[in-house]
């Protein structure tokens, strides 16, 4: 395998930690020099191999590396890290929700990964590579560092704690921009947690400087081993639908653009190897508070110019990025995707729509985070605009809903700061109701208390007596 620059096409050895091209500073992707040999193997044989691995008891092949040959066929079994990552369930949307929208779709619940987000896929890839490098070079000390709005830090800290010495983990967070639930995760895993004022983009600038001037392992999606691990999402979706991607559409929040890059890369590989016959349509989704990729693709194709944007507060915190590191990868892979017959789109949604959609999804039995709400809002938007009609959609719910319960609380209590621009719909709000006061309880015997409380509940719910 080798690093390939998306800008100047220079190739570099994987025997060192590289995040940008030493020749021109461009962003890197990983390339398998033997990929042409894989084309000699029939697509059906690849399908059979990956299907048979579902029954494997090999620890290294239980997680994202079920698709070993398509990902990192340079790693030894002893180096592969598996913590239960990958193979998150794809849950068909409830009947009522599908009927209300008028389209069939499902959520892929990435919150059921070990640290409760999709970032575990990338960390399984990065830490497996780091393990191999430590063993090969005999390193006795290596510091990993990442910028994060929450999920990346949780995954980095978890995998770093599992691998242990000589790896130490530092995470850099924007102060006050991470939910308490997400902050608790790296602290609980024992990582060194550092905070700076600003937003994710500010944190990213700092860790990029660290990676350029000090011996550290950068864990953000600038690290192409992260992208490689996240390709597993595409392979799992294809396998879920028996390798048939006809009339399928995927909705993915863009954020730092690493995940949508990885998903396109995975589908491109499968198409080239005839593992799938058709490419699904891919919709990237961005909030109007952080939409540089939407702004780029919304321009006339011949005159497109990319500009970072200044972000505003967003409930989709992981997507609140004004200058995505992986944007050059998006440009390169989107062009290749469309050259192979695929279709790449970007839709913009409003903060109000994101919160409404998250509440609606969870009201119908799903566990969607705000980014999952962003995808559902994107599907609503695409349907209204006539961009999708008869296809089956798979929505990326990137993290567990509990990580963003604070936003749900603000919605129900109507306490969103004005800069979010979110006003709750009363029919979507849910609040606890008091059945009986503490003072009244004290004045009653145990039997009287149970009887009166039950009577109050019956009256509140309109229950009829037997």
General description of the model:
It is a single chain. This protein has 466 residues and is α/β, with parallel strands linked by helices. The chain has four domains: 1-31, no CATH class; 43-116 and 226-408, Rossmann fold; 120-223, 3-Layer(aba) Sandwich (Rossmann fold); 436-466, no CATH class. Helices cover 40% and strands 14% of the residues. It has 18 helices and 13 strands. A six-stranded mixed beta sheet has the order 4-5-13-10-11-12, with helices on both faces. Strand 6, helix 6 and strand 7 form a beta-alpha-beta unit. Helix 5 (119-137) crosses helix 9, helix 6 runs parallel beside helix 7 (180-188) and helix 11 runs parallel beside helix 13 (327-339). The radius of gyration is 23 Å and the shape is globular. The termini are far apart. The model has no long low-confidence stretch (mean pLDDT 95). InterPro entries: Ser/Thr_Dehydratase, Ser/Thr_deHydtase_PyrdxlP-BS, Thr_synthase-like, TrpB-like_PALP, TrpB-like_PALP_sf. Residues 88-389 form the Tryptophan synthase beta chain-like PALP domain.
List keywords for this structure.
466 residues; alpha/beta; Rossmann fold; 4 domains; six-stranded mixed beta sheet; four-stranded parallel beta sheet; 18 helices; 13 strands; globular; threonine biosynthesis; Ser/Thr_Dehydratase; Threonine synthase; pyridoxal phosphate
Fold blueprint:
Blueprint: E1 2-5, E2 11-13, E3 28-31, H1 35-38, H2 43-52, H3 68-71, E4 90-92, H4 95-101, E5 105-109, H5 119-137, E6 142-147, H6 151-163, E7 167-174, H7 180-188, E8 192-196, H8 200-213, E9 217-218, H9 224-230, H10 232-240, E10 248-253, H11 258-272, E11 281-287, H12 292-297, H13 327-339, E12 343-349, H14 351-363, H15 370-384, E13 392-397, H16 405-413, H17 438-442, H18 446-461
